[in-house]
Amino acid sequence: MLFRQLFEAETSTYTYLIADTTTQEAALVDPVIETVERDIKLVRELGLTLKYCLETHVHADHITGTAKLRELTGCAGMVPENAQVDCASDFIKHGDVIKVGGIPIQGIATLGHTDSHMAYLVNGDRVLTGDALLIRGCGRTDFQSGDAGTLYDSVMNNLFTLPDDTLVYPGHDYRGHTVSTIGEEKQWNPRFVGRNREQFIEFMNNLDLPNPKKIMEAVPANENCGAVLNK
Amino acid sequence: MLFRQLFEAETSTYTYLIADTTTQEAALVDPVIETVERDIKLVRELGLTLKYCLETHVHADHITGTAKLRELTGCAGMVPENAQVDCASDFIKHGDVIKVGGIPIQGIATLGHTDSHMAYLVNGDRVLTGDALLIRGCGRTDFQSGDAGTLYDSVMNNLFTLPDDTLVYPGHDYRGHTVSTIGEEKQWNPRFVGRNREQFIEFMNNLDLPNPKKIMEAVPANENCGAVLNK
């Protein structure tokens, strides 16, 4: 397996490239429109065939690169079930396994940051957590039908139940961390440690954060797979 | 082995944490003064004992975190031989192996970006290339006694001779790449591909780059292990 973490600095977003080095099939998870040229260049240099773009959710802070990548490569654009996206090639349900060559990518429903959100367990040993679980943090729950209690349940029941040595690769990081483990987050994530469900809900509902700068542009564009008018 | 790549966004610098998860001994390579608190917090959360801070070279773009980390933990501060640093705990020569628990970290002389520079081969399968070799790029050679011909020789003779599947972890990245391989850089690094030594020297000597913003502050501070007056 080839596994590459890629960073988009303006919105601190991680994109992941996963490929089977035998079949040369590849998938990108959470590509960003601004870094499509970089990502497609890398895919081509590595001699890969992009089969899938997967979204963890409909992003509010950046526009997905999926539409552009689909246009350039003919790859399928996959989104979590219940996402308000008409243009998806297909929808992924909890437990579904997508195969990239011989590499399994399994969807894990992790709602709460938004009302449609999938983490992806890659190769059984690493989980791309999107905005559900961040390193020593978690995604906000105050827009896009987010719900703090739902996020708490998703993390507790569907992520913190994975083996402790499962690597955690988040959708964003704002402090320069690149990777963690489930065991580490269970022990040290300050959003969850020492808070029960009720306390977590109260904490999250009082964060009082400003909206992401790009939300008015990003959400409608992402509901259209990242196809932006006049762009 | 635990291996963590950490990013400092202002100067796009990567710091590396390497630890033996059996003995809990750890080393940091190229720590940055601004992110010492983050790094020491991580070291403590992971239950590690910081034995070494290693520098790939005397940096011109940021101040090392070594003095602060040495003060906080009593770790040794190691620098490449010939570095103009009086305060180092010890100097590393080409071929020297430092052991972090059972993990070997071997110095590979890679002069040219500066006249004292060490890459570190960690665990035999990944090389921390500092500013000698970047992903699809390389460090500049126009100050601190840098020399383009020397850098060319270092990369050709001491890095591109490593096995193709050796992972390349650079000291910086400005485009959001996190890792590459020796094979990939031999095939795709535009600074080296299609240029002989002479052409490389001519190219590097005509880059005409502005000095790093922090050079006047960083170099003297780093020659003092990162101990900054009034800081």
From TrEMBL, chains A, B:
GO BP: glutathione metabolic process; hydrogen sulfide metabolic process
Q: Which residues form the Metallo-beta-lactamase domain?
A: 12-172
Cofactor needs: Fe(2+)
Q: SUPFAM superfamilies, from UniProt?
A: Metallo-hydrolase/oxidoreductase
Q: Does the keyword Hydrolase apply?
A: yes
Q: Name one GO molecular function term.
A: metal ion binding
Output the InterPro entries linked to this UniProt entry.
Metallo-B-lactamas, Mito_Persulfide_Diox, POD-like_MBL-fold, RibonucZ/Hydroxyglut_hydro
Q: Does the keyword Oxidoreductase apply?
A: yes
Record keywords: Acetylation, Dioxygenase, Hydrolase, Iron, Metal-binding, Oxidoreductase, Transit peptide
Q: Which family does it belong to?
A: Belongs to the metallo-beta-lactamase superfamily. Glyoxalase II family.
Q: What is this protein called?
A: MBL fold metallo-hydrolase
Species assigned in the record: Euhalothece natronophila Z-M001
